[in-house]
Design goal:
Layout (H helix, E strand, L loop, with lengths): L2 E8 L6 H11 L17 H6 L6 E9 L2 E9 L7 H8 L4 E7 L6 H12 L3 E7 L8 H12 L7 E2 L8 H11 L12 E10 L3 E10 L1 E3 L3 E4 L5 E3 L2 E5 L3 E3 L2 E3 L3 E5 L13 E4 L17 E7 L5 H14 L4 E7 L3 E8 L2 H15 L3 E3 L6 E5 L4 E4 L12 E14 L4 H10 L3 E7 L5 E8 H4 L3 H8 L5 E11 L2 E8 L2 E2 L5 E4 L3 H15 L7 E7 L2 E8 L15 H20 L9 H9 L2
Parallel strand pairs: 1-3, 1-4, 4-5, 5-6
Antiparallel strand pairs: 2-3, 7-8, 7-16, 8-15, 9-14, 10-11, 10-16, 12-13, 12-15, 17-19, 17-20, 18-19, 21-22, 21-23, 23-25, 23-26, 24-25, 27-28, 27-29, 27-30, 30-31
Helix pairs in contact: 7-8
Length: 596
């Protein structure tokens, strides 16, 4: 009988998870050499382009050690903080983790947060130093950091290189030796925890699950414990990392089930699969993903509304942290209010909608949720900036704050402190690591984090600082709505909520950016920002000018004047007939969302 080991790889972004996974797949001969490529577990084009992992990806490997056959089930996880929900789901399906730390960078902020997740679940932690082949690797210093971080001995730390393959065999041996086997079944029935799923046009929902109790085979009648929907298992198999039908999954194994179900809302991450006939008690699931950023998404043409709805339904089947609800706008028509886990998540989702479903989008400026208490005591949550109360209304506003951790070298402390001041943040605690780097515990309004703080932190520290955060409590907010007018017409998609203290500065920045981004029209176009009832910034975009005199090669000057006057009257006539409306292309909305 095979020994089973279920494990995940966790690390800060760009610490070598995907590269090390490639070497493990090579060492175990899971992927044929002719099919091997970089980031083999990153199946999306966007993941390869950006060099990051967005989706968790399971992979089964067969490995022999001391004459014993081991079945190693790896779940590769993302490293960016926006996708920490993916990480938390993966950790619930395994017994141990490889904690990767880059030997050139040391422990980072996200290392601390994912490590805490693993500790809370009582998982076995195997410390690994990566990129040990790099000339400037600080192996001794970073080893000491790791020892202090997880309270381990030096001989427990493994050393590996995803680039050269050094230490990969020792790593596989350690997984077999240190990570515990799955616990025996607690009940005499079948229960499987759904940690992810995909959608196929032909086969419907494909559920990724960890079998905790019993076993399942092709043809079994199963049921979703939460939704109560029953179905027949059309195909049962494992991911190696491509789908391989096996016909059977036993307790402790990780694999997939083809359900044939094509309706949305049936399968949910964290739900339990049980036999339809006896319906065992459900396993503890996951907490629901909590959106922190909101943005409205509208089709550029209202004819594409149904296509956009189908696209979001399909996308939610592969990204369970995406939430959305239908809404309508008097200017933009029908669309959807979407909730995201962060700015990168927003960018990835909107880019996938454009690429995978070929939908041209209008995206409103991202905002967070505010708690508004009206004079009569009525409390409401406002997500859209266009629905934010007018300045002067008798309301009390509260906004969410975050508790964050920043790790940085001392050389960049002054730059980062200035940045924190600019973003209304304060330092509540500091700690110095053995290598001289400083850990800053900070608190900050969530809206300021969304104002490009992550990118600015990287710039201020030349890429050396790292950030992780969690949502804290609601606090009183000094904010107001800023409206953007183009050709003296409010564009709701550009409305945003800004801090009163820097409202004028933000108004100038947004009008300047829109001035640089918006294509010229056939008439001069005013771009204005209105805050607290007054226009605080104005830019004028000059008109495009067709050279109507180009065909003239001589003659009296009055001939040129006559043509220019005719052109001028034509533009005035177009405006008078109402054809002077400004068409804003979808790429302008995308650029305005993405920040500078």
């Amino acid at each position: 009988m095979k020994e089973i080991r279920n494990f995940s790889i966790i690390a800060h972004i760009d610490h070598g998870k995907s590269t090390l996974s490639d070497r493990m797949l090579e060492e175990t001969k899971t992927v044929e050499a002719r099919k091997m490529q970089d980031q083999v577990l990153d199946s999306m084009d966007l993941e390869r382009e950006r060099g990051i992992t967005i989706k968790m990806q399971p992979a089964r490997m067969e490995y022999e050690k001391d004459g014993v056959q081991y079945e190693l089930n790896l779940i590769d996880t993302p490293g960016h903080i926006d996708f920490s929900y993916e990480v938390s789901r993966a950790l619930n399906a395994v017994e141990g983790v490889l904690l990767l730390v880059d030997s050139t960078q040391g422990v980072q902020a996200q290392t601390l947060s994912v490590l805490q997740m693993a500790k809370d679940l009582n998982l076995k932690i195997v410390p690994v130093l990566t990129k040990v082949d790099v000339p400037h690797a600080r192996i001794d210093d970073v080893s000491e950091e790791l020892m202090n971080l997880i309270n381990c001995d030096l001989d427990e730390i493994l050393y590996a290189s995803g680039k050269t393959g050094e230490g990969v065999k020792e790593l596989l041996d350690a997984i077999c030796e240190r990570i515990p086997a799955p616990e025996p079944s607690k009940i005499d029935s079948y229960r499987g925890l759904i940690f992810d799923f995909q959608y196929s046009n032909h086969r419907g929902i494909i559920v990724y699950q960890r079998v905790f109790d019993g076993s399942i085979k092709k043809g079994d009648q199963l049921k979703f414990a939460q939704s109560g929907k029953t179905f027949q298992a059309l195909e049962v198999g494992v991911l190696a990392p491509e789908e391989v039908p096996t016909g059977l999954l036993s307790e402790g194994e990780i694999g997939y089930i083809v359900t044939g179900i094509k309706e949305p809302g049936v399968a949910n991450v964290g739900d339990t699969l049980v036999y339809a006939r006896d319906g065992a008690e459900a396993l503890p699931g996951y907490q629901e993903a909590r959106p922190v950023v909101w943005a409205s998404v509208f089709p550029e043409s209202q004819d594409d509304f149904t296509i956009l709805k189908q696209a979001l339904d399909r996308l939610q089947l592969s990204d369970s942290s995406l939430s959305y609800e239908e809404e309508s706008s008097g200017v933009l028509g029908r669309g959807f209010r979407c909730g995201f886990l962060g700015m990168l998540h927003l960018e990835i989702v909107t880019e996938r909608l454009r690429r995978e479903f070929n939908v041209e989008l209008v995206i409103t400026s991202p905002s967070i949720s505010y708690e508004i208490t009206h004079a009569d005591g009525y409390i409401e949550e406002v997500y859209a900036a266009s629905r934010f109360p007018d300045h002067g209304d008798r309301v009390t506003i509260r906004e969410p704050w975050i508790l964050g951790q920043i790790i940085l070298p001392p050389d960049y402390m002054s730059n980062v402190m200035k940045l924190l001041f600019d973003h209304e943040a304060s330092v509540i605690d500091t700690e110095v690591f053995g290598d001289g780097r400083t850990l800053l515990a900070i608190e900050m309004p969530l809206r300021e984090l969304m104002r490009g703080f992550f990118d600015k932190l990287k710039n201020a520290s030349s890429g050396y600082a790292s950030l992780s955060y969690e949502i804290a409590e609601l606090r009183p907010a000094a904010v107001t709505r800023m409206d953007i007018l183009v050709a003296e017409e409010i564009i709701p998609a550009f409305s945003r909520v800004v801090g009163i203290a820097r409202a004028e500065e933000d108004a100038k920045a947004i009008t300047e950016k829109l001035y640089r981004t918006l294509p010229q029209q056939q008439f001069a176009t005013k771009i204005q920002a209105r805050v607290m009832g007054k226009l605080t910034a104005t830019k004028k975009l000059s008109a495009t000018r067709k050279d109507v005199t180009a065909k003239l090669y001589g003659g009296d000057i009055t001939r040129k004047k006559k043509l220019l006057e005719k052109q001028k009257k034509g533009k005035a006539k177009a405006l008078a007939h109402g054809t002077g409306n400004v068409h804003i292309p979808s790429e302008v909305f995308m650029k305005m969302v993405q920040g500078d």
